[in-house]
TrEMBL record, chain A:
Transmembrane segments: none annotated. Pfam families: SoxG. This is Sarcosine oxidase gamma subunit. SUPFAM superfamilies: Folate-binding domain.
From TrEMBL, chain B:
GO terms for biological process: tetrahydrofolate metabolic process. It holds the Pfam family SoxD. This is Sarcosine oxidase, delta subunit, heterotetrameric. InterPro entries: SoxD (IPR006279), SoxD_sf (IPR038561). GO terms for molecular function: sarcosine oxidase activity. Gene3D superfamilies: Folate-binding superfamily.
UniProtKB/TrEMBL annotation, chain C:
Residues 519-601 form the SoxA A3 domain. The keyword Hydrolase does not apply. This is Sarcosine oxidase, alpha subunit. Gene3D superfamilies: 2Fe-2S iron-sulphur cluster binding domain, sarcosine oxidase, alpha subunit, N-terminal domain, BFD-like [2Fe-2S]-binding domain, FAD/NAD(P)-binding domain, Probable tRNA modification gtpase trme, domain 1. Residues 171-432 form the FAD/NAD(P)-binding domain. Keywords: Oxidoreductase. GO terms for molecular function: sarcosine oxidase activity. Belongs to the GcvT family. One of its GO terms (biological process) is tetrahydrofolate metabolic process. Pfam families: Fer2_4, GCV_T, GCV_T_C, Pyr_redox_2, SO_alpha_A3. Residues 907-992 form the Aminomethyltransferase C-terminal domain. Residues 617-887 form the GCVT N-terminal domain. NCBIfam families: soxA.
Length: 191, 101, 1000
């Protein structure tokens, strides 16, 4: 997984056994992260990026990454900022300080969701069992980030490699999401 | 299932990601206290329910979360124009004509 | 060899692999590559079912998915799937099939008496025969009709199969893999476009698989298929899906496909899904669904042994099966002649070709002559003999007068018929396209495309091998170009033979029989005859839509693909209107019957809906708590101890909270963080209450209305900082409150510098309520002086719980001293377990939602959605205190001033006490002023909440009652089936009216 985007940030949770481990696709729980929701207007975006340590991506559905930082475009005035778990306070306070004079909203949502890493040849296929998005690389290149639906659960998808995706869901939805992914992968084990 | 273009995400996505929020350009009176009862009822409840070309509000609720407006032919389900919140209401008749209705 | 009707050679079956199967328990042999239908025919079995209404013996009519008669049940894992078309069931070793709609047996069916009684069952008999007496309908007529009519029996057990789902995108979707579809897929595939080729059959090739008298590029058509499929399979950009039916064409080129994954396997791997739903978004679609042959409508055209001519040819050439030893061919067009020739070439005695046309083409006549086949031109079949198998046909000669003269009988054991061809416009019609009448072709063909699709080949009425191939290539090229802008040079294959024929007939054939007594079937599956259609017209049904519904013609599982055109012509004759003026009914999804399992997919059992759990869930399970579903959430309902029932558990929990302390999981409450310089301004505009003067560290109850003035939600809102509020909502209201706030923010007040973020799942929330609440939390909380003076009721502060940062609220939904602790969710389990242990030291209790409801009802706190129903204003609810008088505007302010909302006679929120303290009212029960109201008396209101109150040791209830606030002390009645219950109207606050307990 070394060539993956933000591989210093998105890592399998060492303490967890894989949810799925097949030759063609695996599902691993991701380690906890700092997640911040940042909302601000145009005038503030540059400063916000500087304070965070990674520029805020301006193109829809895109991401920017820097060392131990990733900023994900969620909407025209909304970003999710990712950093290591232990950096919560530093990052939060750093942005608040820098933006103190500008209207903005920074909210800690670290515990709101959980992430899994779905990777392997069949990763896109597996996601397509519940998501209607075209995951071909021309349409959904590496680095694309989007919110969407997986069957009946809202999810966030971030493509971190040609065959690797981060799937985030609100915590109470994660059993449903990961459970269905594992169930849908069953047929890959068929002879 | 409709395919809808989100003007903020700049992609077409399935209708499942969106919520339709009814007729667009229904203006909430700036000073409601000055609105007559009739005007307020008009604002609250009276909708055209157009068969044909109509402007609707949509929200990309399972995407970027933004509201936007779309002109749709409610008979053919064709979208004739999609535009961001705050942009003026397009000339529906001209759009309909252009679409060959 | 036990298959008397199997040919010596030929066909695409694997003669080396013999398969054993049973039909109605009788063991038979077939081959790999057979369908159940072809295997039955190989064994000489034509009688496979009984008809829907008259229970007439029926045989296999077609070789495709349009089959109306040969519906069978197939057993698998001890359960039976009904109504499968034998023509689509692929044979496998050990297949067990049964016939349907017969009792006691297929050969002797008691229901066949309906055939003799058929004058009782004319078209529309449902509507007129069993009208009286009314009471008989439910008890007598319907059950009898239901059991006598109908098709297969539904399986008894839950479906243990798994069904898959996949979303897919492609540039070009090609539906159908006959000459047109193969050519289209190849042409599109060569451009590099992403192509999907789907066909409902097991093998690609369509009509090419039974074409033996033509050649393509000098090769057998079947070899052309093999080579083309191999080319397609070698392309990475092409997905091949056999056994896959495109059953629905929806808006914006959304097409759904049903793939039968394991249905054809003898021992499928249980890890595989039985079927898979493909939900495809295609940039362009090529509909190459071909055309299907039309039955001829002559008397007794439904006997087993009577098949469509092309089906007979398919069974012969593709499956190596002769439909009979002495075959009569009845036709009005050229194509059936080829079936006769092919049969003759296999040594079958073709007893005659009966062609309606006075002068069939000379070219065909000479071939027939060369084979020694008798030709009866200008003749029709006027009836058939035999019951469970056709034994002969009556021949009639068409006179110039239009009359028919008897032409004697011809003995046969099978009859092939062809009334011509009907393009399959189902998918085009589903795509909302309007078909147009092509008088030259005598068919409805696709008109202007309204979606990005094109019909090609037989599906648009184009026939002949060369023409359909060319049309396929062209359609594939055009579609790929339109989808991707790319094109490629494609070499067209060229065909010899397989030329388009001419001829065809619509409607019922003339005959010399007694029209009142014979049945000439138009719609086989629904037992609709030509007579029925005429009767419908005589009885006033003049629209084809009415005729369809009155007679049920075209309502079979093939949606009238076989019957519509004939029915239309008959109706047109009866109406004396041109056919094009009669109109055509619309084809709708699904194209063929589709299993419920496919639609349900993974949404069943544990995955029917997301099951949302809070961090206390595991602890609750271990400690015997009982859950209730609140939307998708599992919330703890109550905690029975030592075998308590719910009543006892709730009574104990409530009593303990009031006397000592209770712990409650409030994590599901909606939480929204409102942040920004305009946060207070925003809340001013959203909620009825004032917010600007609320000091950081303080909380206030917030009431949310819609612009009509009605209560939609409520919750406590804490001000964390000048520009930051922690808003709580009801559990069920969380998503809609969030959406409403976004709506106003984005579309009404985009200038406000404030943003909202859902934090519902960021926090786990424990409510500690009761006189001992402070003592319970004190050991774990740091950073807050918990004393009443320093941290009074309605306060909020950042603190730590066991060292974890938390938001500590002093709030109460019980009327007792209470705290709610919000910790980041990952610490929720730790917090819950810590507090659950601690309350034990104080003889406290954990409590669930039921006790929460009782405790709040004792205090008269409303629950939005239970005590309110979307028509209740704050004044109605007695909450005028929550409305700020000084605000310019808030959502609902203008609505509250509407005349109806301030008028006298509104239903208002009150308490009710039954005169008998033991009687508990029913929630939802109606309230009247009269003890014994006359029938038709409008209710004064209804009971919204009703409980046994442990604190009062009596029942209490909340209600909304007309002018209720003025009725305090008055007696009203709740009439119930067991008698009228007198109640006294009271204040809504039953316990601690002064509110002293909350402020300790």
């Amino acid at each position: 997984m070394s060539e993956l985007l933000a591989n210093d940030l998105i890592t399998p949770d060492a303490g967890e056994i894989p949810l799925l481990s097949l030759p063609s696709v695996s599902i691993l729980k991701a380690a906890p992260l700092t997640r911040l929701s940042l909302r601000c207007r145009e005038a503030t975006q540059k400063d916000a990026g500087a304070a965070f340590g990674a520029e805020l991506p301006m193109s829809p559905l895109s991401n920017t990454t820097a060392a131990k930082r990733a900023a994900l475009w969620m909407g025209p005035d909304e970003w999710t900022l990712l950093a290591p778990e232990e950096d919560l306070k530093t990052v939060f306070d750093g942005i608040e300080e820098k933006l103190s004079a500008h209207p903005h909203a920074l909210v800690d949502i670290s515990d709101r969701s959980e992430a899994i890493i779905v990777s392997g040849d069949k990763a896109a296929w597996l996601l397509n069992t519940g998501i209607f998005i075209d995951f071909s690389l021309e349409v959904f290149p590496v680095g694309t980030v989007t919110r969407t639906l997986f069957h009946k659960s809202p999810v966030m998808i971030w493509r971190i490699g040609a065959d690797a995706f981060v799937v985030e869901a609100w915590v109470s939805f994660m059993d449903y999401v990961s459970g269905l992914l594992v169930q849908s992968a069953t047929e890959l084990e068929a002879a | 299932m409709l395919l809808i273009y989100c003007p903020y995400c700049q992609v077409e996505r399935s209708e499942m990601e969106f919520a339709c929020r009814g007729e667009a350009h229904v203006v909430r009176p700036a000073d409601p206290s000055k609105a007559t009862d009739e005007e307020w009822v008009e604002f609250l409840y009276m909708r055209d329910n157009t068969k044909g070309v109509a402007a609707e509000r949509w929200r990309h609720i399972h995407g970027c979360g933004r509201f936007f407006n779309a002109v749709r032919d409610t008979v053919s389900d064709k979208f004739l124009k999609i535009y961001k919140t705050g942009e003026p209401k397009p000339d529906l008749e001209a759009l309909a004509k252009e679409a060959g209705k | 060899m036990s298959q008397p009707f199997r040919t010596e050679k030929g066909g695409r079956i694997d003669r080396a692999e013999q398969l054993t199967f049973t039909f109605d328990g009788e063991e038979m042999q077939g081959h790999k590559g057979d369908t159940l239908a072809s295997a039955l025919l190989a064994n000489g079995v034509h009688l496979v079912g009984r008809s829907f209404k008259y229970h007439r013996p029926r045989g296999i009519l077609t070789a495709g998915s349009e089959e109306p008669n040969a519906l069978v049940g197939v057993y698998r894992n001890g359960d039976q799937t009904p109504n499968l078309r034998a023509t689509q069931v692929e044979l496998y070793q050990g297949l067990e099939a049964i016939s349907q709609n017969r009792f006691p047996s297929l050969g002797f069916d008691i229901g066949a008496v309906n055939d003799l009684l058929s004058p009782l069952f004319p078209a529309g008999f449902y509507y007129k025969t069993f009208m009286w007496p009314h009471a008989f309908w439910d008890k007598v007529y319907e059950p009898i009709i239901r059991s006598a009519a109908g098709l297969g029996k539904p399986p008894k057990n839950p479906d243990h199969d798994v069904y898959g789902n996949i979303y897919a995108h492609c540039d070009v979707l090609v539906v159908g893999s006959g000459p047109t579809g193969l050519a289209a897929a190849l042409a599109a595939g060569e451009t590099g476009a992403k192509v999907m080729l789907v066909d409902e059959q097991a093998e690609f090739g369509g009509s090419l698989l039974s074409e033996v008298s033509a050649s393509i590029d000098g090769k057998d058509p079947a070899d052309f298929v093999t080579e083309t499929v191999a080319k397609l399979a070698a392309m990475d950009n092409v997905t091949l899906l056999p056994r896959t039916t495109a059953f629905g064409y929806f808006a914006h080129n959304f097409i759904s496909l049903a793939e039968r994954v394991t249905e054809h396997l003898s021992n499928p791997d249980p890890k595989l899904p039985r079927e898979r739903l493909w939900q495809v978004r295609a940039k362009e679609v090529v509909i190459a669904a071909g055309a299907i042959e039309r039955p001829m409508v002559f008397p007794e055209n439904d006997r087993p042994g009577i098949l469509l001519a092309d089906a007979g040819r398919t069974y012969l050439n593709r499956y190596g099966v002769k439909v009979g030893h002495k075959v009569l061919v009845a036709t009005a067009c050229d194509s059936a002649w080829q079936a006769a020739f092919d049969l003759a070439d296999h040594g079958v005695d073709v007893v005659a070709i009966v062609d309606l046309r006075e002068t069939p083409p000379e070219s065909l006549m000479s071939i027939a002559e060369a084979r020694g086949i008798r030709v009866e031109a200008g003749c029709v079949v006027t009836g058939t003999l035999g019951r469970k198998r056709v034994k002969g046909a009556l021949i009639g000669r068409l006179m110039t007068s239009g009359q028919v003269a008897s032409g004697g009988q011809i003995a046969c054991d099978a009859l092939l018929m062809s009334g011509g061809w009907t393009p399959t416009v189902s998918l085009y019609s589903q795509s909302r396209g309007k078909v147009v009448w092509d008088s030259e072709k005598g068919a409805y063909v696709p008109g202007v495309s309204v979606q990005k699709e094109r019909s090609a080949g037989g599906a648009k009425g184009l026939y002949g091998l060369q023409a359909t191939l060319e049309d396929g290539y062209a359609a594939g090229e055009e579609a790929a170009k339109a989808a991707t802008g790319k094109s490629a040079k494609v070499t067209y294959a060229s065909a010899t033979g397989g030329e388009a024929g001419s001829g065809g007939i619509l409607g019922a054939l003339p005959h010399d029989r007694n029209a009142a007594r014979v049945k000439a079937f138009v719609d086989y599956q629904n037992d609709v005859t030509a007579k029925d259609v005429k009767l419908a017209v005589r009885e006033g049904m003049h629209s084809i839509e009415h005729i369809k519904r009155y007679t049920t013609t075209g309502m079979a599982t093939d949606q009238g693909r076989l019957s519509n055109m004939n029915a239309l012509e008959i109706a047109s004759g009866a109406l004396q209107k041109p056919m094009t003026d009669v109109g055509l009914t619309t084809f709708r999804q699904p194209y063929t019957p589709t299993t419920f399992g496919l639609f349900a997919g993974v949404s069943r059992g544990d995955f029917f809906d997301p099951v949302r759990k809070t961090p206390s869930h595991d602890w609750v399970v271990e400690n015997g708590g009982v859950f209730e579903d609140v939307g998708q959430w599992k919330r703890t309902w109550y905690f029975p101890k030592n075998g308590e029932d719910m009543h006892a558990a709730v009574a104990r929990e409530c009593k303990t909270v009031r006397e000592s302390v209770g712990l409650f999981d409030a994590s599901t409450l909606g939480k929204i963080e409102v942040v920004g310089p305009d946060a207070a301004e925003f809340l001013e505009r959203m909620y009825t209450n004032p917010w600007k003067k609320l000091a950081p560290g303080r909380c206030r109850y917030g009431l949310l209305l819609n612009d009509a003035g009605f209560i939609t939600d409520d919750g406590v809102i804490g001000r964390l900082a000048e520009d930051r509020f922690h808003v709580t909502t009801t559990t069920g209201g969380a998503p809609s409150v969030f959406a409403t706030m976004e709506d106003y923010l984005q579309t009404e007040w985009p200038d406000l510098n404030v943003w909202i973020t859902s934090t519902t799942e960021q926090f786990a929330v424990a409510a500690v309520q009761g006189p001992k609440a402070r003592e319970v939390i004190a050991p774990f909380i740091e950073g807050v002086d918990l004393s009443a003076d320093a941290f009074p009721h309605m306060s909020v502060k950042q603190a730590t719980f066991c060292g974890v940062p938390c938001r500590l609220f002093r709030i109460s939904f019980t009327g007792e001293l209470g705290f709610e602790i919000n910790v980041p969710r990952r610490h929720g389990k730790m917090m819950w377990e810590t507090l659950a242990k601690e309350i034990e030291k104080h003889n406290g209790t954990v409590y669930g939602t039921e006790s929460m409801h009782v405790l709040r009802a004792e205090k008269g706190y409303i629950i939005v959605g239970q005590d309110t129903d979307g028509t209740v204003t704050p004044q109605d609810a007695g909450m005028t205190w929550a409305i700020s008088k000084n605000k310019f505007d808030f959502v609902g302010k203008r609505g509250l001033a509407r005349p109806d909302l301030v008028a006298d006679g509104r239903k208002q929120f009150v308490g009710l006490l039954t005169k008998d303290p033991k009687v508990k009212l029913e929630e939802g029960a109606q309230i009247t002023t009269a003890e014994q109201p006359a029938t038709g008396t409008p209710a004064e209101g209804h009971v919204t909440s009703s409980y046994y109150s442990p604190a009062l040791d009596r029942t209490i209830a909340l209600a909304i009652v007309k002018n209720g606030h003025a009725l305090e002390g008055k007696t009203l009645y709740v009439p119930m089936p067991t008698g009228s219950i007198p109640v006294e109207v009271t204040s809504t606050v039953f316990y601690d009216k002064e509110g002293a307990r909350i402020n300790v």
